[in-house]
């Protein structure tokens, strides 16, 4: 297995990774960035981005990430394809294995591997990706003004998404598998008292239909029970709110994480408990999960990495 030593290694190519690359590149840290599982991150599966500052007419998600990539390359960042498959953070320089075949030794490490939205696993979710299926209400809700949407989930996130969408859409169905909501009491009250939201308890979404995008959802009420019912509901948008899984598994033996796997950092900084190792973007953010907050944390991580290298004469 071949080894290579770098001053700054960035893992992940979403807004956090690319912003960290832009800053570390401008600081002449000769950063190396590995794109990871999804080059460009989650924004590449979003059609239109309207809430990223500087684009008054909006911009395609893929186009935005391409702009960030070009900006990073302009400052000499070496962007490579490859997935981090193992990590050894027991001592500096930190060792990251790429594609099970190459080891990068890094004086500083910026982890910006993101978090992956959980899906139900329906074939139709892939079929209608970017055509009515979304895992982010704050990203895509704007496109469903005065339309009918469905949200899947019964926890706080689902209730927050449904409440947010109700401020835009004409009607929101909340599809809940169980016969109760797992959300906090205050969130439950908001949902049940909102005239625009209809909660469908004991329902499973088993498919979607539509010609050029989502036009409706196939539902099963009390699935597997003798009184099971199957019917369709017309909708324009289908939102998943059943949680995210941070892409942090290879770092578990070394870093502090919450029960879901989000990396815990020191206060509002991107510093982890290991000096010289920083976490930026959705992998360390269970709350906001926005492109702009990810970009900001990538900037912070880059500045911290530069300071660390100066302080340690690396």
Characteristics:
single chain; 314 residues; alpha/beta; FAD/NAD(P)-binding domain; 2 domains; five-stranded parallel beta sheet
CATH hierarchy, class of the largest domain:
Alpha Beta
Uncertain stretches: none
CATH structural architecture of the largest domain: 3-Layer(bba) Sandwich
Task: Bin the helical content.
Answer: 10-25%
Secondary-structure-derived class = alpha/beta
**Shape label:** elongated
**Cα-atom Rg, whole angstroms?**
21 Å
Q: Any idea how many domains?
A: 2
Total number of helices: 7
Question: Mind explaining what this structure looks like?
Answer:
- The mean pLDDT is 94.
- It contains 7 helices and 19 strands.
- It is α/β, with parallel strands linked by helices.
- It has 2 domains: 183 residues, FAD/NAD(P)-binding domain (3-Layer(bba) Sandwich); 122 residues, FAD/NAD(P)-binding domain.
- It is elongated.
- The strands form 5 sheets. Strands 1, 2, 5, 6, 7, 8 and 19 form a 7-stranded mixed beta sheet that branches. It has a 5-stranded parallel beta sheet with strand order 10-17-11-12-13, covered by helices on one side. Strands 14-15-16 form a 3-stranded antiparallel beta sheet.
- α1 packs parallel to α2, α1 runs parallel beside α7 and α5 runs parallel beside α6.
- The longest helix has 21 residues.
């Amino acid at each position: 297995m071949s080894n290579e030593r770098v001053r700054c290694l960035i893992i992940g190519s979403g807004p956090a990774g690319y912003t960290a690359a832009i800053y570390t590149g401008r600081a002449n840290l000769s950063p190396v960035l590995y794109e990871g599982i999804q080059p460009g991150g989650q924004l590449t599966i979003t059609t239109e981005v309207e809430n990223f500052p500087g684009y008054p007419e909006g911009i395609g998600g893929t186009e935005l990430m391409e702009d960030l990539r070009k900006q990073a390359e302009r400052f000499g960042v070496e962007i490579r394809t490859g997935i981090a498959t193992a990590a050894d953070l027991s001592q500096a320089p930190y060792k990251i294995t790429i594609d099970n075949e190459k080891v990068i030794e890094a004086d500083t490490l910026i982890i910006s591997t993101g978090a992956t939205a959980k899906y139900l696993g329906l074939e139709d979710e892939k079929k209608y990706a970017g055509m009515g299926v979304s895992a982010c209400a704050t990203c895509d809700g704007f496109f469903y003004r005065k339309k009918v949407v469905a949200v899947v989930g019964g926890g706080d996130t689902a209730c927050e998404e449904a409440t947010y969408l109700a401020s835009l859409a004409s009607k929101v169905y909340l599809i809940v598998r169980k016969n109760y909501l797992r959300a906090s009491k205050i969130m439950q009250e908001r949902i049940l008292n909102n005239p625009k939201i209809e909660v469908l308890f004991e329902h499973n979404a088993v498919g979607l239909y539509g010609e050029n995008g989502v036009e409706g959802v196939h539902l099963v009420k009390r699935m597997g029970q003798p009184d099971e019912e199957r019917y369709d509901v017309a909708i324009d948008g289908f939102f998943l709110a059943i949680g995210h899984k941070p892409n942090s598994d290879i770092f578990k033996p070394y870093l502090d994480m919450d029960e879901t796997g989000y990396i815990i950092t020191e206060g509002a900084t991107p510093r982890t408990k290991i000096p010289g190792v920083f976490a930026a973007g959705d992998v360390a953010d269970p709350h906001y999960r926005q492109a702009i907050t990810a970009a900001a944390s990538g900037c912070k991580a880059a500045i911290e990495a530069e300071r660390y290298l100066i302080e340690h004469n690396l």
